[in-house]
Design goal:
heterodimer; A: 420 residues; FAD/NAD(P)-binding domain; Immunoglobulin-like; 3 domains; seven-stranded mixed β-sheet; five-stranded parallel β-sheet; 7 helices; 37% strand; globular; B: 479 residues; D-Amino Acid Oxidase, Chain A, domain 2; six-stranded mixed β-sheet; five-stranded antiparallel β-sheet; 30% helix
């Protein structure tokens, strides 16, 4: 078997892997290797040809390819090594190895001092949410339709219904319209938007595409190709009200019903997985339950902004490098991060109090939309960080900055409180 | 006009098994099917179980053929490289009332000449199947109930028949059968007329419509829908054996079992319907599966589902498996009532049909150059690291993983497309190598498979279908 030795091995060359590899190199790791299954770097951003990336990080609006190009340029100028067309089959924690397969070298064993998981996520499918009906051609996840149009120049349909108001769904509504298709409606099960508000404005409102909240697709019709869908409003328990079901003719259904972190490799390496995010449990160094395995980006939790992914992945890369070089912070105490009122999950899931005083950016999502909210982090009754928000929404990530020196006790609770 | 000795109508399990059996003889055979791919309709959407026949109606042709077929599979699957496992089935009695029924079921198995059904105590069952409802009182164990890859079984039968000289005319719906002086003259298809001596109607769901062409439709086919769930191979609650409910007078009920590829299969419903094409799933149907199967395996996690599908069993009215030859129509063989046991009995039916033809005076002579074996597509993911290394060295395309969920390589997909009776559509690739059958359901590999198919078949990507013609996947180039 072909052997490669390195300090930090990064699995995945999308935005997370790129930022992690660059940070690891900058921190001083000598040999950093990105293993990527695609024929080029950039991950899903390669098919995201729309603008909207980089507003927080670069203070300008970039397309997906423009955004990742800034990183790939740095990857090559810094001398990060890249193994393309290489599918990782196994991550072994005890041997610190990554087994991958590649046309050129065949089976390849990468031996690393630390490993960063940056495999991203996959789309939830029509079958995952059990939408009844037939199984004709013309049913796509929004992301695969996006790949077909933007990378393979193939148009998937003419008359479109989209289920789910996630960001990819709304962006595809605009994209299909620009390509001359008729997007009949976007259907959303919840009574609120799943994605970013700005995407509703720019992708739906600007093109007069109706958004039907509290509705769902109850049945797909069509033998060989989709002929239409039945759409019905739902009651407070999200059950369709079948008396109000209506037929909507279309030839294509796109599903934008959520993303699932892709953790088959992590699970096989016995990394602890958080049941809420479906991603690894991590601390502020983005270190998983296995000392030498780090994780970042959408493999940990699904982000709405790539800018956050880059920031979070830099942490992973930096500390993976420090572990590889033997200069990892000395752990004094482990603090559990607990979710309080209207908080669905946090990332990181735990904090390490070390010999260094750190400012940690703690990301979290709320359970339900609310206006006039105070976000707090508290240890017992003592509030150690807080911030006011006019509005919070499950589709938009929140964050609080926490100084580890201020933490007392063994746990910290994150809450979104209603302001009177 | 094409000329042959035998036309087999239908390239499902039964048609392909008959064709393979006939290919042992010096006789010209053409298999015709309306679909573009071999594999039939009912043959590709069922519970993928090779039955023992323990619960058949004793004394019937169905009982005779199922019971005879089951022991044939060990050798057949070795010869034809078909994934097959004898995992066994259990029949747990959850209520006292069900427990009382066990002796009757065992006695019926005995009358079907299935002698190896055993009683199991509650403890034995729970040890065998820890996820079973703990209220179980006891049950039966049927060791030879087995699981198979139904797609590969039919492909293997067809490919082996092809290797032995059988021709396949696919995408060719039969529109008429011509007779002359009480004899078969020819079969008319959308792709031309075939002059023939024998016609074997193994058209499954459509066998009544074929029989009507020669005035032999003294029955109707009623489609009985069965809906199923497939669960992720990493689902939280798995069973090791085929877990069957105690049947009621109305239905055999809904089961849970592993598939040959490690997923869990849960279902089916049994719903008679007038349409022979409506394969939709429904909320009511799927909910009824959940309710019934939780009775057997309380922790079954249907949220781990990666797909749901429906199959249509070609039930016969009046009921029962029938084999018919007619004094007033020489050369015509009619098969009807091939239902849920059809996959199992297909190989025995192949032998039975040929035997009956020989008895009726068909002078088929055995060949001495019959090729008995067929090599399947090498599965990269199932090889040891050493073998994987060799494979990539010999053919670098084994190093290109196209379907990440099931670890399917480009080399496997090319083999599926290029082999005889190869894949022409995205679903046909999926049925041969499982690209797109994993948890993302083709979200990632689907667009790549379209590209590979277009390249290999030398057509534009717009011409690639999901399945049969009409199931177009895209409408042209983006602007």
């Amino acid at each position: 078997m072909y052997n490669i030795n390195c300090d930090v091995a990064v699995i995945g060359g999308g935005p997370a892997g790129l930022a992690a590899a660059i940070a690891a190199k900058k921190e001083g790791a000598e040999k950093v290797l990105i293993i990527e299954r695609d024929e080029s770097l950039g991950g899903i951003l390669q098919q995201c040809i729309h603008p909207g990336f980089g507003l927080t990080r670069f203070n300008e609006e970039l397309t997906g390819p423009e955004y990742y190009s800034r990183f790939t340029e740095e990857v090559s100028s810094l001398g990060v090594e890249v193994l393309l067309n290489s599918m990782v089959l196994e991550v072994n924690d005890s041997e610190k190895t990554v087994i991958c397969v590649n046309k050129e070298y065949g089976m390849t064993k990468v031996v690393a001092k630390s490993i960063v998981l940056a495999m991203g996520c996959r789309e939830r499918t029509r079958a995952n949410i059990v939408t009844p009906g037939t199984r004709p051609a013309g049913i796509y996840t929004a992301g695969s339709a996006q790949r077909l149009i933007n990378r393979q120049n193939i148009m998937v349909g003419k008359k479109i219904v989209i289920l789910g108001s996630g960001d990819i769904g709304m962006i595809m509504a605009r994209r299909m319209t620009l390509e001359g298709a008729n997007v009949v409606m976007v259907v959303e099960l919840m009574d609120y938007l799943a994605g970013l508000t700005r995407n509703k404005v720019q992708c739906l409102d600007d093109f007069n595409i109706p958004l039907k909240t509290s509705h769902t697709i109850t049945k797909i019709v069509g033998d060989k190709r989709v002929e239409g869908v039945y759409v019905a409003p739902v009651d407070e328990n999200k059950k369709p009200i079948l008396e109000k079901e209506e037929f909507v003719a279309c030839d294509t259904v796109l599903f934008s019903v959520g993303l699932i972190p892709e953790n088959e490799l992590s699970k096989n390496a016995e990394v602890e997985i958080c049941p809420v995010t479906n991603g690894p449990v991590v601390n502020q160094y983005m270190q998983t339950s296995k000392e030498a395995i780090f994780a970042c980006g959408n493999v940990v939790h699904v982000n709405d902004l790539v800018d956050n992914v880059s920031a979070e992945s830099e942490q992973a890369g930096k500390y993976a490098a420090r572990l590889a070089m033997g200069s990892f912070p000395e752990k004094e105490k482990e603090i559990a991060v607990k979710t309080g009122r209207n908080v669905r999950y946090t990332c990181p899931h735990k904090l390490i109090k070390s010999n260094e005083n750190e400012k940690v950016n703690l990301y979290f999502r709320v359970l339900a939309p609310e206006k006039s909210v105070k976000l707090i982090a508290r240890c017992g009754e003592e509030i150690i960080s807080s911030k006011k928000e006019y509005r919070v929404n499950p589709g938009e990530m929140n964050n609080l900055c926490i100084e580890t020196a201020k933490i007392s006790g063994n746990e910290i609770v994150i809450e979104a409180l209603k302001e009177e | 006009m094409l000329k042959t000795d035998v036309v087999v109508i239908g390239a499902g399990a039964v048609g392909c098994a008959i064709a393979r059996e006939l290919s042992k003889y010096n006789v010209n055979v053409i298999v015709v099917d309306k679909n573009e791919d071999v594999g039939g309709d009912a043959s590709k959407s069922n519970s993928a179980i090779i039955h023992t026949g323990y619960d058949a109606a004793p004394g019937t042709l169905e009982s005779q053929l199922v019971v005879a077929a089951n022991p044939m599979y060990d050798e057949l699957c070795r010869d034809l490289d078909v994934p097959f496992k004898r995992i066994g089935a259990i029949l747990p009695a959850i209520t006292e009332e069900q427990f009382e029924k066990l002796p009757e079921i065992k006695a019926k198995a005995f009358r079907n000449h299935v002698y190896d059904v055993e009683y199991m105590s509650r403890d034995e069952l729970l040890k065998m199947e820890p996820e079973l409802n703990p209220e179980v009182k006891g049950g039966l164990y049927i060791p030879r109930e087995s699981i198979i890859d139904p797609f590969i079984l039919v492909q293997a039968l067809a490919e082996n028949a092809f290797a032995n000289g059988v021709e396949f005319l696919l995408g060719a719906k039969v529109t008429d059968i011509k007779t002359e002086n009480g004899k078969i003259k020819s079969v008319v298809t959308e792709k031309g007329e075939i002059e023939t001596t024998y016609v074997i109607n193994s058209a499954g769901l459509y066998c009544d419509e074929i029989a009507e062409m020669v005035d032999k439709a003294d029955y109707k086919v009623v489609a009985r829908k069965g809906q199923f769930y497939i669960l992720d191979n990493k689902t939280s609650c798995k069973v090791n054996k085929i877990v069957l409910p105690i049947p009621t007078k109305i239905t055999k009920g809904k089961l849970m079992c592993p598939t040959i590829h490690g997923n869990m299969l849960v279902g089916p419903t049994a719903e008679d319907q007038p349409s022979k094409t409506d394969k939709s799933t429904s909320t009511e149907g799927l909910d009824s599966i959940a309710k019934d199967v939780k009775n057997l395996v309380p922790n079954v996690n249907l949220r781990d589902t990666i797909t749901q599908y429906s199959g249509l069993r070609p039930n016969r009215n009046p009921e029962g498996l029938n084999f018919n030859m007619y004094d007033d129509l020489f050369g015509y063989v009619n098969l009807s009532g091939v239902r849920s046991t059809g996959l199992t009995l297909s190989v025995a039916m192949g032998k039975y049909v040929v035997e009956q033809l020989l008895l009726s005076g068909a002078g088929f002579v055995l060949k001495d150059n019959f090729i008995k074996t067929r090599k399947g597509i090498i599965k990269f993911s199932e090889q040891t690291k050493e073998v994987q290394e060799e494979l990539v060295k010999e053919n670098p395309l084994y190093g290109n993983i196209v379907c990440r969920c099931e670890t399917i390589t480009e080399a496997e997909i090319l083999d599926a497309i290029k082999r005889p009776l190869g894949a022409k559509s995205v679903d046909a690739v999926k049925r041969r190598v499982r690209a797109g059958m994993g948890r993302c359901q083709g979200g990632f590999c689907g667009p790549k498979v379209i590209e590979i198919l277009a390249r290999e078949l030398k057509v534009s990507p717009e011409e690639i279908n999901k399945n049969d013609p009409g199931s177009y996947m895209n409408v042209g180039r983006a602007r």
